[in-house]
Automatic annotation (TrEMBL):
<dbReference type="InterPro" id="IPR029052">
    <property type="entry name" value="Metallo-depent_PP-like"/>
</dbReference>
<feature type="domain" description="Calcineurin-like phosphoesterase">
    <location>
        <begin position="10"/>
        <end position="160"/>
    </location>
</feature>
<dbReference type="InterPro" id="IPR024654">
    <property type="entry name" value="Calcineurin-like_PHP_lpxH"/>
</dbReference>
<protein>
    <submittedName>
        <fullName>Metallophosphoesterase</fullName>
    </submittedName>
</protein>
<dbReference type="Pfam" id="PF12850">
    <property type="entry name" value="Metallophos_2"/>
</dbReference>
């Protein structure tokens, strides 16, 4: 499929399968008969960081046929994640003969009429940003066409941003291994999004009444609550502060508390009612820790 300004853009989005084959097989089976303009994988195709580069190459060999099938259903674009060894000067899989198109880290690439990059500083209003690490401050302030990410294993959607959570979460660090989810995103010519959440395992969709300002969340289904911020409210104020710092073009060490609180309140409103006083207390504690 090719795209133009008068047609809805249809994307199949996923990430973080960590070398797992079963999750990709479920994506292939679940999208049989469908067509997409683009198929996007946000990295951590392998688990080489933990299992070793040789095992990572075997994992790439195993998953490649599934990516080849998906590439037949839409233009496949992908990046490497931290578990693919994509940190530091060595990039162990950069020469691997993988189907589709690699999105450059420090440049833009145009495929079937759409522009993609991993670099935020290269984004304009028609650019699709794809990177592995999640920048939650972009939930409110992203100025490109779309932003897709992964890495943190708790998905999120708001405005023009989607974190895809995971296809398969390994049992590393004592966590249970889980099958996750993927997404079909349709972007209308007017910029309106439709997000189809497709669960293949143990992920559920939720909107927290207390923290709804940070978007729709996709979390493991065994959690007692639908919201990661209800477990640790400091995480909530940390994200709110990051958003305000980004909007103000500053960093925590140089920010004025009153400006940060005013900016955040204008963006997120007074939810909960103690929002401003709690945020101020959080910022003051953070400043004391830094000093």
């Amino acid at each position: 499929m090719t795209t133009n300004d008068d047609e809805t853009l249809r994307l199949l989005c996923m990430g973080d399968n960590h070398g797992d084959v079963d999750s990709l097989e479920r994506v292939v089976d679940g999208t049989e008969g469908e067509e997409f303009d683009f198929v996007i994988h946000v990295g951590d195709i392998t688990n080489a960081w933990f299992d070793g580069v040789n095992e990572g190459r075997e994992q790439l060999d195993a998953v490649t046929p599934y990516f080849e099938t998906l590439h037949e259903r839409g233009e496949l674009l992908y990046i490497w994640g931290n578990r693919d060894g994509a940190i530091g000067p060595e990039q162990p899989f950069q020469d691997y003969d993988f189907p589709g198109t690699f999105i450059p880290e420090d440049d833009v690439i145009t495929v079937a009429g759409e522009t993609f990059t991993q670099a935020l500083e290269l984004v304009d209003d028609e650019t699709i940003l794809v990177n592995h690490y999640w920048y939650p401050e972009l939930l409110e302030h992203f100025e490109g066409k779309a932003y897709f990410s992964g890495h943190v294993h708790t998905g999120r959607y708001k405005n023009k941003t989607l974190n895809t959570a995971f296809l398969y979460r390994t049992a590393d660090h004592g966590a249970d291994a889980l099958l996750g989810a993927y997404f079909v995103v349709e972007i209308a010519p007017d910029g309106t999004w439709e997000v189809d959440f497709r669960n293949i395992g143990q992920v559920r969709k939720g909107i927290c009444p207390k923290h709804h300002a940070l978007g729709v969340q996709f979390v493991p289904d065994y959690w007692r609550q639908d919201c990661q911020f209800c477990y640790d409210e400091d995480d909530y104020y940390s994200e709110v502060a990051r958003s305000a710092f980004y909007e103000l073009g500053t960093v925590q060490e140089e920010a004025e508390t009153d400006e940060v609180v005013e900016s955040a309140a204008a963006t997120f409103g007074a939810t909960p009612p103690s929002f401003e006083s709690n945020l101020r207390e959080f910022l003051e504690e953070q400043a004391a820790d830094h000093s």
